[in-house]
Structure formats: C-alpha cells, structure tokens
Amino acid sequence: MNTKIIFLILGLVFLIQEIKAQTNCDESTAVTELDINNVRAGIFPGADMWWDLVSAPKYEVPKGSGINRLLAGSLWLGGIDGSGQIMTAAQMFRQTPGNSNATDFFTGPGDSCAAPYCMQYDRIWKINRQEVIDFIGGLPATPDMQQFPGNYSNGNTLAPFVDVNNDGIYNILDGDYPAFDIAGTIPDSSDQLYGDQSLWFVFNDVCNIKTQTGSSPLGLEIQGQAFAFISPDPAINNTTFYRYKIINNSSIVLNDFYLGFWAGTPVPADFRRGSHIGNNMAFVLDDYPFDPSSGFYPSATGIQLLEGPLADPGDGIDNDRDSIMDENDERCGISSFIVFENANGLPMGNPASPTEYYNYLKGINTSLCPCTNQPTPFMYPGTSNPDCPCNWEDNAPAGDYFFLLSSGKFTLSPGDIQTITYAVTWAVDSSAGNSLNTLFAAHDTIQSFFRNGYTLPVGINDMQHEIKTSVYPNPFSDQTNIYFDNPSGKTFSLIIYDVYGRELKVMNDLSHQPVILEKGNMKPGIYFYKIYNHSMNEVSGKLIIR
Q1: SS3 letters across 50-99
Q2: What is the DSSP annotation of 238-254?
Q3: What is the pLDDT of residues 68-92, one digit of tens each?
Q4: Domains in the chain, ordered, with CATH?
Q5: 72-80 and 254-264 beta bridge pairing
Q6: What span, in angstroms and rounded, lies between the C-alpha atoms of 213 and 372?
Q7: In angstroms, rounded to a whole number, what is the distance separating the alpha carbons of residues 49 and 341?
Q8: pLDDT tens digit string along 368-427?
Q9: 535 vs 53, 488, 493, 497, 528, CA distance in Å?
Q10: pLDDT tens-digit map of 194-214
C-alpha cells in the first residue's frame, strides 16, 4: 500500500479519536463526603454513591465507628417511547459481563457534550449553611461558593442561588450566594439548598454510549443534591437525604415511566431485607454483634421515598394510597420492591438488557406471595401488604443480594420536570429490643420533618406551653447569654448536647435572666441546648462555638 495512504489512514484514525475525546463526556470519578451529622457517606457527582469505585462500602454510621451499613446505591430510570421501545438508564457497580467500565450516566447537564466542558462538572459543590451565614455576615466565601455553577453555558440558571442584584448571573462579588433560605424568603416551590450541609451536582444520560443497560438515551438532565442536618433528635441526626430534579430535555414522550432506588449491602455480613408499603420504605436488618462500648445492638437501615413523582392527572389510580383518587398534585408512592442476587444468568440475578432493567423497575418478577401463591410486586412486606395477608419476611441465606425500590408509573413529556426526594435512616434499639420498630418510629419523625419544611412540628401540648428563647452572641468564642420567657417565675433546667446527642453540661434551678453559658472545655463546633421544666414547657436550639 502507498505510504502516503497509510499515513492518511492513520491520521484519520487519530483525528476520529481526537474528535471522540472532545465530544463525549465521561462517567464521574470525583468523590466527596456528606459528613456533617452522625453519618459519613461517599457521594459521586453521578447516579451512584456509597462506595469507592472498587469494592469498599462508604456509608458509615455511627460516624467514626468503622461500620458501613450500605455498600452502594444508585438511581434507576425507565420508560417506553411512542414506538414501543424500552429505554432505561441505571447504574450498579459500573460493570456488566465482559465490561468492567460500564456506565449510563455522565458528568454535566448535557447542554454540551464537549469533554472539556463536561470535566468542569466532575465534582461536587459542598456547602455548609453556616458558611453562607458567615459570608452574608462579611466573611470570605469558600472556594465552592465562589465556583458554584449558578448558570448554564447560555446564561440560564442552573444551580439555585440568591441573586442579590437581580441580573440573572451568579457572581459572588455581587453578594450572590448558594440558595440556602437564610432569610426565610425563598418560596417552598422554588429551587433551593437544604440541610446544614448540601452537596450539589449534575449529570445526564446523553453524552456518551450507555454501557450499563445498553439503552439509547432517554434525554435526561438530573440535578442532584445530597444533604443532612445536625439535630439533637437521633432520627434526624442519623439520616441523609437525596433530592433529584429530573428534566426531560428530549423531544420524546416517555410513557409508563418508572424510577427506582437500587442499593446493595456489604458482604459477607448477614443482612435481611424487607419493605413496608405504608411507609414507602425498603429496609435492611444487619447482624452486627452487640458492641459493649457503644451499647449498640443489631440495627436497621431504611430507604424511604419522601416525595414521589407527580402522577398523571385523572389516571384513575390512588397513587399515594390515601383512599382519595386523582386529587390535585397527587404523587406516586412506592409501586414495587424486589430483591435479586448479584449473579449473572439467573432468573432473579443481575439484569442484562433494557427490558430486564425495566421489568425490575416495574416489579415484574417470579416471586409469589407464600399465602396466596399469586405474583406480587412487593417482596418481603411483613404484614404491610393487604394483598398478601401473611407475615412474609426474608429468610434467604446470607449472600450477595441487591434490592430495588420503585415508584410509578407516570408520563414524562418533553420539558417535564419531576422532583423526588429519598431519606436514608439508621436506627438501633440500644436495649436489645426491636430495631425495626425503632426505624419505623424514626420514619414517622422524618416524614413529619419533611412535610413541615424540614423543621420539627410542634405538638398541640407543646404549642400551649411554647417557650421563646434567644441566644446572644451566637456564634460565640468564650461565653454567651441565653434568654427565655418565664413570666410565672418557674425553675428550668438547661442541657447542652453535642452533635451525637451526648449530654455535656446540665444546669438546674434556673429562673433568672440571662443564663450565662461558658465555653469551658467545649471545642469549636455546633452544639444544641434544651430548656425545660416539669410543666411540659420545653424548647431546643442550636449553639455555635468559634
């Protein structure tokens, strides 16, 4: 062959490779920890999380214990286009048979698939609420605040921010800041950051070949937010939250759409899995032995759907199971829970095609309710499934299993936006009781917390006896003053807690104003106080020591 032709062919090959490298986004590799409360969770700026991209789990609770309760987790999505083609996007361990680098999600919003542009989004913006408060008060902005991705490449708003000068452009020099609702002026319906710590990221399923499910692109942009709160309430302090804003940027109507939350547990530890339909929850029970140093007995970890997708109007289905059909803004609860084995080629093993991923999302499986011998989309529901009226619990031998909690079906049309929120909660009964009951009680707290705008609702009795307090200065360095209403001259007690709920200081027989609290040997950080008396007067608050 002519030498010039050979060089020409080689040149074309290199050119094609260069073009490909410049026009395809990659999967995420950066990792950041959500770690402000009693949980340390590793998060990727894509659809998966809680592992190290090799095999080690990264969902540690209690923080510092060295025990990881979950191995990995990810978002699954699937629907059918107008021609009947099944289209999916999912993630597991970025592996399929014969492919050790499988992925369906890529960094960036998908408005451009040029590699240099996508690389800007292979990161997570980690921002604490207190950092924003400090910035508003005159302190310098953190690097993540300075580089916050407030705008798309075309100038439209991407990540939510407070636009101080209303010019539409995020600029920290103008006083703009990531949209924590510090002043209480952001409407609940608007995008904002939540928690005492928020991790914000964005990914898509369009900017490369999808090698996990093998599906064609759905055309989705997904803006993710992982967040957590520090609280004296153990349910909240042991919980992490995950909010996804799913945008259909394609021209395709996606029918019979389902979304799911996939998770795995560490092995070889023995876990038992289950579901609770009324709580919109999947859970795992671990077999970790009693730890005398902490008093912790075997515990339970739950994944609950707090905010499901909006159901199709007038679909004739009681999607949220509240006995009311087709109410305004009805949201879907969970529609299935399945467990499958981490093995290839089994009837209930790892899926290997878009159809198999989609069937798992729909809850189509070979499982039969043991007391009716009828197929069911809910495996191991205990006594929570009226269509399976027996106590069906997981009695599978210890092994490597995954589970999938799904919600649907609904229609995702071009331009549609669906916002969904999950919570992952760890609970333990330290008296050797039933940790699953403790988890269900924690679910009630988290559900009320969410519905009340991420604040703990005040009960009727507490409202009748509510105490108003104020702390100044707060934050403080050496000492602060705590004021509280006491028109009847009663005596109160004050307790100071750390973020783990441990009592650090107790002051009794308080009636005078103010109470002077000395820093003493408390280190800089966030603490909580509770003021109460024996007439059910009680109030809690937050302290910050610099």
Answers
A1: CECCCCCECEECCCCCCCECCCEEEEEEEEECCCCCEEEECCCCCCECCE
A2: TEEEEEEEEEE-SS--E
A3: 999 999 999 999 999 999 999 999 9
A4: 22-127+207-451 (2.70.98), 466-545 (2.60.40.3080)
A5: antiparallel
A6: 34
A7: 20
A8: 999 999 999 999 999 999 999 999 999 877 778 999 999 999 999 999 999 999 999 999
A9: 54, 12, 12, 22, 21
A10: 999 999 999 999 999 999 999
The two counts, helices (H) then strands (E), for the chain are: 8, 27
Find tokens 């910050």 and name the residue. Answer: 544
Length of the chain: 546
Q: Looking at per-residue confidence, does 412 or 542 come out higher?
A: 412
Residue 47 phi/psi, 5-degree rounding, is -95, -15
Strand partners, 417: 247
Is 408 in a helix, a strand, or coil?
Answer: strand
**What pLDDT is recorded for position 501?**
66
In this predicted structure, the answer to whether residue 3 has a pLDDT above a threshold of 80 is no
pLDDT at residue number 435: 86
Q: 3-class SS at 533?
A: coil
Instruction: Give the DSSP H/E element, type plus range, for residue 463.
Output: helix 460-464
Residue with tokens 């080690």: 56
Rg (the chain; Cα; Å): 25
35: phi then psi, degrees, rounded to nearest 5: -150, 25
Least-confidence region, from 182-186, 193-197, 259-263, 287-291: 287-291
Q: Tell me how far the alpha carbon of residue 342 is from its chain's centroid.
A: 24
Integer angstrom CA distances of residue 202 from 11, 145, 199, 205, 273: 35, 16, 10, 11, 30
CB 517 within 8 A of CB 482: yes
**Nearest Cα residue to 55 out of 95, 98, 16:** 95
**Across residues 168-183, what is the average pLDDT?**
94
pLDDT of residue 128 exceeding 60, the answer is: yes
pLDDT at 163 over 50: yes
Q: How far is it, in rounded angstroms, from Cα 219 to Cα 50? A: 26
Q: Are 527 and 454 in contact (CB under 8 A)?
A: no
